[in-house]
Structures are given as structure tokens and as C-alpha cells.
């Protein structure tokens, strides 16, 4: 398990270990997380991170009924967000200890904020992204 202390450190560590575009399902697999793409209904959630103490296992549920087809832009955003809950130490520990209950995420209202935040991340790693785009287009 990667030990990461801040959101910017998460981005730096992951960006240094993987190629662009980030292989999110591979990252989850290497961390021992089980990602489940299933139909949980249209009026529920996009993504949810769940810890099952009986199995000592984290599960990430991605709802295909809300347009999260595997590897679609929305599913990648949803999975990246849910991976964030796992990689942020206090979120992961709170889920493991029951101090934080799993909560559902629906993303339409926050897409503008997310886009702005992703631009900040892009700016921090623009040389790597530009190199990738220039050499793969």
C-alpha cells in the first residue's frame, strides 16, 4: 500500500509510477482493491468505497446505470475519486475503523469544480502530459 500524506503527494507519487493515461483499474488491482461495475439503479450513486471487515477488503462500486461504463470518461472520473478515498490515509483508516460510514457520490453538480481541480493537477504535471500528447497524437 502506498503511504501518501497529501493530495498533491498522491498525484506526484501516482504520476511518477504510471504512464498517462493512468491505468486506474490496474492501480486498484495492485493495491488489492476490488472494483465492481454493476447496475445499482439510476437514482442512487455514481461511486462508493466500501470496507468489508470480515474480509479485510476494500471494494469500490461503480454504477453503470448512471453512465459509468468501464473506461468511459465518467467512470474514470468516478474511479479516480473513489481511489482518492482509499489513498488519503485518514479516509482509509476512518472507513476501516467505522469512524466514517461509506457514503454515496453523485457527480453532476461538482463537474465544474472537478474540471478546475484537474486543470490545477495538469498544470503541476504539464511537461509530462504535453510530452505524452505530442508523442501519441
TrEMBL record:
Q: Which domain of life is it from?
A: Bacteria
What is the name attached to this protein's record?
IrrE N-terminal-like domain-containing protein
Amino acid at each position: 500500500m502506498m503511504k501518501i500524506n497529501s493530495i498533491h503527494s498522491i498525484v506526484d507519487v501516482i504520476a511518477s509510477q504510471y504512464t498517462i493515461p493512468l491505468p486506474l483499474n490496474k492501480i486498484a488491482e495492485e493495491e488489492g482493491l476490488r472494483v465492481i461495475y454493476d447496475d445499482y439503479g439510476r437514482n442512487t450513486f455514481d461511486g462508493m468505497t466500501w470496507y468489508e471487515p470480515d474480509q479485510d477488503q476494500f471494494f469500490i462500486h461503480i454504477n453503470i446505470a448512471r453512465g459509468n461504463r468501464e473506461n468511459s470518461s465518467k467512470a474514470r472520473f468516478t474511479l479516480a475519486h473513489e481511489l482518492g478515498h482509499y489513498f488519503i490515509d485518514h479516509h482509509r483508516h476512518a472507513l476501516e475503523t467505522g469512524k466514517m460510514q461509506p457514503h454515496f457520490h453523485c457527480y453532476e453538480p461538482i463537474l465544474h469544480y472537478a474540471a478546475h481541480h484537474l486543470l490545477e493537477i495538469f498544470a503541476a504535471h504539464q511537461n509530462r502530459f504535453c510530452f505524452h500528447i505530442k508523442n501519441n497524437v
